[in-house]
Amino acid sequence: MAFEISTESTVQLPESATNEEELLLAKTKNPGETPPNPLSKNQIKKQKKLKLYETLKKERRIKEREKLKVRRQEAAAKGLPVRTGPSRKELKKRTKASIENPNALNVAIDLDYDDLMHDGDVAKCIKQCLRIYTINRRSHNPCRLHFTGIKENGRIHNILKKNDGWQNWNVDYHFNKTHIDIFAKNQIVYLTCESDTVLEKLDAECIYVIGGLVDHNHQKGLCHERAVKADLKTARLPLSEYVDMKTRSVLSTFHVFELLVGVYEGKSWTDAILETIPLRKGAKPKKSKDLNCTDGDSDSKVDQLPR
Ligand SMILES: C[S@@+](CC[C@H](N)C(=O)[O-])C[C@H]1O[C@@H](n2cnc3c(N)ncnc32)[C@H](O)[C@@H]1O
């Protein structure tokens, strides 16, 4: 399932507001009074565009579904396989089973950075969360996924609400509660690239927390600082242990999750890293690690968790 959300800032406006004048009046309590903070022409234009985009998105979805239905009917009539991958129902069943599995790996996305991001970055952060949800759902071995620290009716919550059916996704949503309020402190491992501890293998007893922060690394070390202050264990991904990279090793929230899921599915660190890391980071497998490789699974240090 592909999710699309706008990266524009959002101001809630009445459905009926159709032109610039109405939009400005909507911001004013008494008609005739100058609005305290009127929207600029540009903002109004953006709002209109956003509204149109939202309407068209729904129509596009309906058309896509209809097209898919026709394609399936045609394939069935020709005796061809109707679908290539698992159905939505199957995917949902699979994720649900993983949630009920007491040995499933717990991963939490810490969304307690609502106040520290620009509007556009909040939207990008949620977009990443949606991709995380999708990749988990499509995984052969889904994790138990938590979204923690969501401020009720905060910006993150409001953007989430724009996605139809978000409440039904197989995600444990935690409102006004952070990982510290939810999990035992000694089980939490906050993943940060500044940590001195290297994550060697995944442990089902641990809750891995990934910072849901999109900041273009302007707030260097913030997640690590917070984790240390809260007296939590931290760990960094074993990137430099398995690959040589051209650039710094701060990954996006989504890539960190994708990498964890890959390893949890049974991939070696090397394979998971190379499949996940964007090309521009120019990751190449370490020669020394390759020499130790015996059967294609080069990272013998990685223990697989019980499924
Ligand atoms: C885009 S980074 C956030 C960067 C931010 N300036 C910070 O203070 O970490 C998003 C999250 O991905 C995780 N992360 C990124 N690179 C990592 C690495 N090399 N090892 C472990 N975790 C990493 C961290 O949990 C981080 O909070």
Summary tags:
alpha/beta; 6-stranded parallel beta sheet; about 10% strand; 8 strands; disordered C terminus; 2 domains; two-stranded antiparallel ribbon; about 40% helix; binds S-adenosylmethionine; Alpha/beta knot; 11 helices; globular; about 300 residues
Describe the structure.
This protein folds into two domains: 1-84, no CATH class; 88-291, Alpha/beta knot (3-Layer(aba) Sandwich), CATH 3.40.1280.30. The chain contains eleven helices and eight strands. The chain has helices spanning 20-26, 41-77, 88-100, 119-138, 155-160, 179-182, 222-229, 239-242, 253-264, 269-276, 287-291, and strands at 106-110, 144-150, 172-175, 188-191, 207-211, 233-235, 243-244, 284-285. It has a six-stranded parallel β-sheet with strand order 3-2-1-5-4-6, with helices on both faces. Strands 7-8 form a two-stranded antiparallel sheet. Strand 1, helix 4 (119-138) and strand 2 form a beta-alpha-beta unit. The chain binds S-adenosylmethionine (SAM). S-adenosylmethionine is lined by residues 191-193, 210-211, 213, 215, 217, 219-223, 236-237, 239, 249-253, 256.
